[in-house]
Design goal:
By secondary structure, the chain is an alpha+beta fold. The chain folds into four domains: 2-60; 90-213, no CATH class; 245-465, no CATH class; 505-656, Trefoil (Acidic Fibroblast Growth Factor, subunit A) (Trefoil), CATH 2.80.10. Helix content is 24%, strand content 22%. The longest helix has 31 residues, at 30-60. The protein is flat and about 145 Å long.
C-alpha cells in the first residue's frame, strides 16, 4: 500500500510542477518568477490541507476511542419525600385546609385595609415559604398524628386553621405602615425569612401557642406544673430523658465496588446517609459479599426498636443493589454517635477496578470520658492514600458516611463465633483480606456488618458488637431529669401546658382537647379519689395514677396493670417508659357512651397496656375497709344491673363543676 501511495505522490508532484511551468512560461523576470512559485506552491498546499482535513474528519467522526478507567462512584442522593396517596390523606387535607383558611382571612383583611385602593378580583395570597413550610411541618408532625388518635382529623384541621387565622389577623393588625406594606412584603414575598419589625412584637404572642411547636421535639412535655396534692414531696415534674438512639432497618443498599478478579467475585454495598422524617441516619459499616447475592428484591425501610404500630414500614417492588438481609442505620446525638476520627488502610486492589479498604479506629473522647467503638469498615473506590476523613474533608468529619457508637450502648458478641462470607484467595493481590459475619442471632437480624480480617484465619480475636436494648429505650437505671416550677423558655422546649398563672388556657392543646395535665378524679359511686398527672411523654393521652384515700392527703405509689394476670399492681416507681404504668382518659356521657367531643364531665380510665380493661372501684362489703381498685372489662348493656355497675367505672372531675375548665386552683 505504501508503494502505491508513493507512486501516486510522485505522479501528483510531476503534474503540479508541469502545471506550474505551463502557467509561468510567459514570465521572464527572475523576481516575478520567484514570487509566482511561492504563491503557487502555497495555494497548492492550502488546497491539499483542506482536502486532508475533510478526509480526516470523515474518518474520525465515527471512530470510538479506547475506554478509560471507570470514574469514582458518586454519592447517593437523598431520598425524596414520601408520596401522597390522594386528596383524602390527612396531612394533605390539613395543609389545604389551613392554607385556604389563612388566605381567605388574609385577603379579607388586606381588602378592608386598602379600601378603594384594593384590586378587584385579585385576592391577596400568602407566598412566604417560611409560612407554608411551617404549615407542612405541623400537618406531618408527631403531635398531629398523636392527637388524631382521639380527635377526628377534620376537627384538628379546623382548630389549627382557626389559630393560624388569628395569627394572620394579629400580624396584619399590628402593621401600622401605609397600605400594610411591611406585612404584605413579608407574607406575599417568597424567601422573606426574617420576621418584620412590627409594633408590639406580635410574634412573641404567636410563640406562646402549643401549635407553633408541632413538628419540633418534646411537644407534649409539660414544663410548669402546680401540684394540687402532696406539694412538699413532689415539687416538680420528673421526666425520663429521651432514648440515646433512633434506628431504621433497611436493605436499600447502593453498590460501592464490584470486581471479579479478586479471588471469589466481590461486591461491596452500603447504606448511604439516609434522610428520613427530617433526620439523617448513618450506617455502621459496609457489607462485603459474594457477587452472586449482590442484587435482590424485597426492598423495605421501617423504624427499628419501636412498637409494631409505629414501625411505618414501606416496601418497594423492585430488584435493587445489595443483599436481601437488612442492616440498621442510626440517628443520635454526639453523646452516643460520632464520625470516625482516624483510619488505617487494611487492603487495596492494585489490579483494578480501584478500591481501598479502610478500618476506623476506636476513639476515646476526653470531654465525654468514654470510648466510641468501630463496628465495621469502609471501602473507597479509589487508590487515594488519603484516609476517608481527609477525602471527605478533614475539617468536616460529619461528612463521612459511617459512625462509631458509644461503648456503653454496645454488647460484645465475639464469643458467638463467625461464618465465612468471602476472601481474596487466588487474586494475587498484595495483601490478604477475608469477610466474616457474626453468628449471633440479633446481629443477623439487624446488624449484618461485615467483619474484615487481613488474613485467611478464623477471626477468633476480632471483636463484634450488637446494640444494647437501652440504646433505643429508656430504662429504670437511667437518671431522670428534674424540672422545676420556674417559667422556662417556651420557644426552646415547646411546652404543652395549661391551667397555670403563667399563661392562658387558650394557648394549650390540652385545654382544647379538654384533657387535664394534673387533676383529682372522684369516683361517682363512692367518692374515692384518683390523683392523675400527665406522663410527660410525647403521647397526648398518657397518664400516671396514684390513689388518694378518703379523708387523707397522702398519695400512694404509682398504679399499673399486672401483665397477663390483668390485675392491678401497686408500689411502682415513677417510670413513664413502662407501658404497664400508663393509663388513658376517655370522655363519656352520663350513659357511659364514648364522647369524642368531651362535652361532659365524666371519664373512663383505661389501661394503656390492655385497651379492653378499665379502672373500677368496688366498696368493701363490710363497710369498714378501703375500696378495691381493680381492672375489669365494661359490663354488657344487656345486664339488668348495667346502670348500677357502670357507676363503679365512671369518674367525675370536680374541677369542672364550677365551670373553671381544667384550670388549677
Amino acid at each position: 500500500m505504501f508503494v502505491v501511495y508513493f507512486g501516486l505522490g510522485i505522479v501528483a508532484s510531476i503534474f503540479i510542477v508541469y502545471f506550474g511551468l505551463q502557467l509561468s512560461k510567459e514570465i521572464y523576470h527572475p523576481t516575478l518568477i520567484t514570487f509566482f512559485w511561492i504563491l503557487y506552491l502555497a495555494s497548492v498546499l492550502t488546497i491539499i490541507n483542506v482536502i486532508a482535513t475533510g478526509a480526516f474528519y470523515n474518518i474520525l467522526r465515527l471512530k470510538r476511542g479506547i475506554p478509560g478507567d471507570q470514574g469514582r462512584i458518586g454519592d447517593k442522593g437523598d431520598f425524596g419525600e414520601t408520596g401522597v396517596c390522594d386528596v383524602q390523606c390527612d396531612s394533605k387535607v390539613c395543609i389545604v385546609t389551613i392554607m385556604d383558611s389563612i388566605n381567605k382571612t388574609y385577603s379579607e383583611l388586606i381588602t378592608k385595609a386598602l379600601g378603594k385602593n384594593a384590586i378587584v378580583n385579585e385576592p391577596a395570597v400568602i407566598n412566604n415559604s417560611e409560612i407554608t413550610n411551617k404549615i407542612k411541618l405541623i400537618c406531618k408532625s408527631v403531635a398531629y398524628k398523636e392527637i388524631s388518635k382521639i380527635k377526628a382529623p377534620k376537627l384538628i384541621n379546623d382548630y389549627v386553621a382557626d389559630i393560624y387565622s388569628k395569627w394572620i389577623k394579629l400580624l396584619v393588625d399590628s402593621d401600622k405602615s401605609s397600605g400594610k406594606k411591611v406585612i404584605r412584603d413579608y407574607l406575599e414575598t417568597d424567601g422573606m425569612d426574617d420576621f418584620p419589625d412590627l409594633p408590639g412584637d406580635p410574634f412573641k404572642e404567636i410563640e406562646k401557642y402549643d401549635v407553633y411547636y408541632w413538628g419540633s421535639d418534646r411537644i407534649f412535655h409539660p414544663r410548669v406544673i402546680e401540684y394540687c396534692s402532696d406539694p412538699k414531696e413532689y415539687t416538680g415534674l420528673t421526666q425520663l430523658p429521651p432514648a440515646p438512639l433512633e434506628g431504621l432497618l433497611t436493605n436499600l443498599y447502593g453498590k460501592v465496588f464490584e470486581a471479579g478478579n479478586v479471588g471469589t467475585p466481590l461486591t461491596v454495598s452500603r447504606i448511604a446517609p439516609l434522610n428520613f422524617n427530617f433526620k439523617t441516619y448513618y450506617s455502621l459499616g459496609d457489607i462485603f459479599t459474594n457477587t452472586n447475592i449482590a442484587r435482590s428484591d424485597g426492598k423495605f425501610i421501617e423504624k427499628y426498636a419501636v412498637p409494631d404500630s409505629e414501625k411505618e414500614r414501606s416496601e418497594f417492588n423492585f430488584v435493587g443493589e445489595g443483599p436481601k438481609f437488612p442492616t440498621v442505620v442510626l440517628n443520635g446525638s454526639p453523646k452516643y454517635l460520632k464520625p470516625p476520627q482516624d483510619w488505617i488502610k487494611i487492603w487495596r486492589n492494585r489490579r483494578g477496578p480501584p478500591v481501598t479498604v479502610w478500618q476506623p479506629l476506636d476513639y476515646y473522647d476526653n470531654t465525654l470520658k468514654k470510648w466510641f467503638r468501630a463496628c465495621g469498615c469502609l471501602a473507597m473506590p479509589n487508590w487515594d492514600d488519603n484516609n476517608p476523613r481527609q477525602q471527605y474533608g478533614f475539617n468536616n468529619p460529619d461528612a463521612q458516611p459511617i459512625r462509631l457508637v458509644a461503648d456503653e450502648l454496645l454488647e460484645e458478641v465475639t464469643k458467638d463465633g463467625y461464618t465465612f462470607l468471602w476472601n481474596d484467595k487466588g487474586s494475587r493481590v498484595n495483601g490478604d483480606l477475608a469477610s466474616w459475619k457474626n453468628n449471633n442471632q440479633e446481629y443477623r437480624d439487624y446488624m449484618n456488618i461485615s467483619t474484615l480480617v487481613t488474613n485467611y484465619n478464623y477471626p477468633s480475636n476480632v471483636k463484634s458488637y450488637i446494640l444494647k436494648k437501652q440504646a433505643f429505650f429508656v430504662t429504670d437505671e437511667m437518671q431522670p431529669l428534674n424540672f422545676s416550677h420556674e417559667l422556662v423558655d417556651e420557644k426552646k422546649y415547646g411546652i404543652a401546658f395549661h391551667g397555670s398563672p403563667y399563661r392562658s388556657a387558650k394557648y394549650s392543646v390540652f385545654a382544647w382537647l379538654k384533657l387535664p395535665l394534673e387533676v383529682q378524679l372522684t369516683n361517682s359511686a363512692n367518692s374515692y379519689k384518683i390523683y392523675v398527672k400527665h406522663s410527660g411523654l410525647n403521647k397526648v393521652n398518657s397518664y400516671m395514677l396514684r390513689k388518694q384515700y378518703a379523708n387523707k392527703t397522702e398519695l400512694t405509689t404509682y398504679m399499673g396493670s399486672n401483665g397477663e394476670k390483668k390485675e392491678l399492681s401497686e408500689d411502682n416507681k415513677f417510670n413513664p417508659s413502662n407501658i404497664k404504668l400508663i393509663w388513658q382518659i376517655l370522655c363519656i356521657d352520663k350513659n357511659g357512651n364514648l364522647d369524642r367531643d368531651c362535652n361532659s364531665t365524666f371519664y373512663f380510665i383505661r389501661s394503656g397496656a390492655d385497651t379492653k380493661l378499665y379502672l373500677k372501684v368496688e366498696v368493701d362489703k363490710t363497710g369498714k375497709g378501703d375500696p378495691y381498685y381493680i381492672l375489669s372489662k365494661l359490663p354488657s348493656k344487656n345486664n339488668p344491673n348495667y346502670e348500677k355497675l357502670m357507676k363503679e367505672y365512671i369518674w367525675y372531675n370536680p374541677l369542672l363543676s364550677s365551670g373553671a375548665k381544667l384550670e388549677m386552683k
